Amino acid sequence: MRKIIISSLYKTPLHILYWGLVWLFFYLFFSVGSSNAQFLFWFTSILSIITIIGSYVFTYNLIPNYLLTKKYWSFLLYTTYAIVFILFGVLVTVVFGFVFFFNLEFQNMPALTKSSSVILVCVFLIIALASGFKILSSNYKSIEEKRALENKFLQTQLQLKEQELKFLKMQIHPHFLFNTLNTLYGFALKKSDQAPDMILKLSNLLDYILYQVDKPLVLLKSEIEHIDDYISLEKMRFQKNLNVRFQKDLYNETVQIPPMLLLPFVENAFKHGTPINGVMNISIHLKTTSKELHFYIENNSNKTTTKRKGIGLENIQKRLEMLYNKKSNLIVTSKENLFMVDLKIPLKND
To answer: Residue ranges of the Signal transduction histidine kinase internal region domain (predicted)?
Structure first.
């Protein structure tokens, strides 16, 4: 309510100025061929009042309530009423001047004030200008409101996407932590020299998983270092029952990628990998060019473990879609005793 009052107070001087200019236009236009200032004053004033009433009827009633709401028949009906009113008002104005200022001597009236068609054109021209301005302002306001609504909707969608992305980035399975802690407990009981190194690697990895994940981008070198730490921890746990090959062919280590983009694939391979003859085999190949990152990983598996991988990889696929908008390429295949993941993503170099 307060905004409406302030808006009205702001617009009032503009309306007064506009109608003052309209009155002046009428006075100067119809004064051609006449020196009767008193007649011109009253004639112009009455004509201005008719124009003001007609303009406000159209701009604040007929246009917003009927035309813009697509009630075309009602708009046409009430427009007809308004035109009849204006015609009647113009006729009365001409008769008023004819009777009271020129003593029924029609030939003594100024030429322009005797022509009803000229008077109507002037009146309807002003009403048309006011109505056109109202339609344009309403359309502009509608566009602005639609744009604001779209921006609000997009902002809400973006916030939801950010929350979903953050959730997906955190989805490294807790079984790794439990298994590593159990192995660490065993090393501690044996007072193994590997225990301090294991604690350090686990601490670094947890820091990366829990805190660095909030960053939009990290160095590829950092992601590789934490993959190496992850593999080292798993080697400590599996001892001689694990065979991991991690081949790196890097064009540039200073490129940046989203955190936790590659590590979940490695974690997934360990979780669902199946030992063959007592040994789990995992092969990883990471290659980068000036424009692309290519990550390939394969592990031994069987049909049972392959079926369990759906949810994790599905979540990774969702994250890739949000990050790269179909510019990434993820291919997951399974044949015989092998499970393979082939990922390609575009890169931006610094």
So the answer is: 164-242
